[in-house]
TrEMBL record:
Pfam families: SnoaL_2 (PF12680). Residues 13-108, 158-254 form the SnoaL-like domain. It comes from Candidatus Thermofonsia Clade 3 bacterium. Gene3D superfamilies: 3.10.450.50. This is SnoaL-like domain-containing protein.
Length: 281
């Protein structure tokens, strides 16, 4: 597999429709984790790929971006759209965040986080849908250190979101920043204040645990567990998040969250800016 860009080789093998070819890119004891569910070793990875219908001419992967960690270059992150065809010939697309470890020419660890609310019917060769991005992100002036990244992120989530402190949250964001969750897109400081207030009204006992950071200078990915209790339903859940975006000079500019919204304590109805898709009930 190409040392400089393992996602290309992975996408090519996946699109071949041969699960064993995909698994052959992995270390014999590799682990894949898909929306929190682990698959250990090549046999389990192949079986999972067959279970989701990986067959010749029935899968396409469109990579939006992929990047490599500056400190630990074995670690990579990417955003891509996975398209699969059913027996009736109809194609479906889901947007995914992906993180992997690539060492000695093999994938040793891979995690996939689906944005289940992004699923749509699509033509096999249709262009990617437009992304939510700020109108402008200035060039970075320097690379941030990992201590700086974690200090900003912990202030953002633990002192801000977890405590319902909107001013702390917005202090971690550029005025033109954007957050995209499975349920809503929040743009700018004013909307962010409203979103933080709504979160505090609806959720309690928030705990965030960071597991890994991948930072290329241009892009940032953080894998974390976000735990909270829904005040209205009483449901408590641990969301396995893969968040991908841009942080420059201590502030977030763009933040996209990938997590399994079907298993989350959070709901569309309890957001400020979330809207139902045309095909949702």
């Amino acid at each position: 597999m190409a040392e400089d860009f393992p996602f290309d080789a992975l996408a090519c093998a996946w699109q071949s429709g041969e699960p064993e070819q995909v698994a052959s890119l992995c270390h014999p004891n590799a682990t894949w984790i898909v929306d929190g569910r682990p698959y250990h070793g090549r046999a389990e990875i192949s079986a999972w790929l067959r279970s989701i219908g990986v067959m010749p001419h029935r899968a396409r992967i469109l990579i939006r971006r992929a990047f490599r960690d500056l400190r630990e270059p074995a670690w990579w992150a990417a955003e891509w759209a996975l398209r699969t065809a059913a027996d009736d010939g109809c194609w479906r697309e889901v947007e995914q965040g992906v993180m992997l470890c690539f060492s000695a020419g093999q994938i040793t660890h891979l995690r996939i986080h689906n944005d289940h609310r992004s699923v749509r019917k699509v033509a096999a060769d249709a262009p990617l849908r437009d992304e939510a991005w700020p109108a402008f992100i200035p060039p970075r002036t320097r690379d941030m250190t990992y201590d700086e990244i974690l200090a900003v992120h912990y202030r953002h989530v633990r002192q801000g979101w977890a405590r319902g402190d909107a001013e702390t949250v917005i202090s971690c964001h550029a005025p033109e920043s954007l957050i995209q969750t499975s349920f809503e897109v929040v743009r700018g400081h004013d909307q962010l204040r409203r979103a933080v207030r709504a979160y505090a009204e609806n959720y309690a006992d928030t705990v965030i645990t960071v597991h890994r950071v991948v930072y290329s200078g241009d892009y940032l990915a953080i894998h974390q567990t976000w735990s909270c209790t829904n005040r209205k339903t009483g449901v408590r859940a641990d969301d396995q998040d893969l968040n991908i975006g841009v942080m420059q000079d201590g502030r977030f500019w763009r933040w996209r969250e990938y997590y399994d919204s079907t298993q989350s304590a959070q709901t569309l109805e309890q957001t400020v800016f979330g809207v139902k898709r045309a095909d949702e009930n």
